[in-house]
Amino acid sequence: MSTLSAEPRRPASLRWRDTVGELAQRHRGRLALVGVIVVLMAVTAIRSSVFLTWDNFENVLIQASVVGILAVGATMVMISGGIDLSIGSNLSFSAMVMGTLMAHGTAAGPAIAAGVAVATAVGLVNGTLAAYAKTHPFILTLGMLTLLQGAALLVSKVPIPVESDRLLDFGDSRPLGLPLVVVCFGVIALLMNVVLAMSKLGRWIYAVGGSESAARLAGVPVRPLKFIVYALNGALVGVAAALLLLQLTSAQARMGSGLELTAIAAVAIGGTPLAGGRGSVGGTLLGVLLIGLIANALNLMSISSDWQYVLQGAVIVIAVMAQRD
């Protein structure tokens, strides 16, 4: 005698529809952001005949890659519940260290390694202060922003040119058929996504961002974790500084000014809250892409720089509001 189930079995087509609906509901914020990007691209393509060309897309990727590397590091920090406002000034200072060392005869490799080490050390200091000082990292890193900006100006108020032809040729190289800075951005984003999504370190970062006290009770080493998070973020800042140095072919004391806000805006647009505990590298990549496309579209439409600030801010606010969960 056969046994009848309590509920009739639903047809496969209805189960598939329920699954799609559940996924759409779960990722509605990211889908809304993709919708904003598609609308922006459609409008720009109508207004500009060169927008949908490979050369233009490659230009967007080049312009967005340095901000993207900073945003990937900022994503990790913000998921852990922290924030680092000093990444732009840290970039300027570490690039000035690289440029100064090369100007005094140090080989390019050791000079770049020293600059990355300096940026990592700044991250360690930020991590130490965030872990032990009973002050919000927003205030701490705001002070570090000012300190490093002043230090970069003390190193030199005039640009320091990169005179190594071999280094500049390396900066112009195209591994995998793409500009070096784009490849570096892609590799860093992929590795960080693996760390956050598949490693114990990533689970700890989410746990600390969700509830620091609960994470501590669960055995997560909260303070050492903050050292690691801020140090990794500093190391990424150093890599971004080296790549921007190669793009500009000179070290400049204000080359990173404003990049911290652009990077944090990209992270917020991508769905990582300032409170921490949630977020992803994939969302940040969409945020970086949106900001890059906005800048590119406004330039192609010959919008004045004053209106560009207004329109960029408006589109970013709309994007953040549209992709809220």
Supply database-style keywords.
two-stranded antiparallel ribbon, 2 strands, globular
Q: How would you sum up this structure, described in words?
A:
With 325 residues, the chain is an all-alpha fold. It is 74% helix and 1% strand. A two-stranded antiparallel ribbon has the order 1-2. The relative contact order is 0.19. The model has no long low-confidence stretch (mean pLDDT 88).
Annotate the secondary structure layout.
Elements lengths: L11 H15 L1 H20 L6 H26 L7 H17 L4 H25 L4 H19 L4 E2 L3 H7 L8 H19 L1 H11 L1 H6 L4 H27 L1 E2 L7 H11 L11 H20 L4 H18 L3
Helix pairs in contact: 2-13, 3-8, 3-9, 3-11, 3-12, 3-13, 4-5, 4-6, 4-11, 5-11, 8-9, 12-13, 13-14
Summarize it.
It is built from 14 helices and 2 strands; from the N terminus they run ααααααβαααααβααα.
Gyration radius, rounded: 22 Å
Strand order of the largest sheet: 1-2
Structural class: mainly alpha
- Helix tally equals 14
Unreliable stretches: none
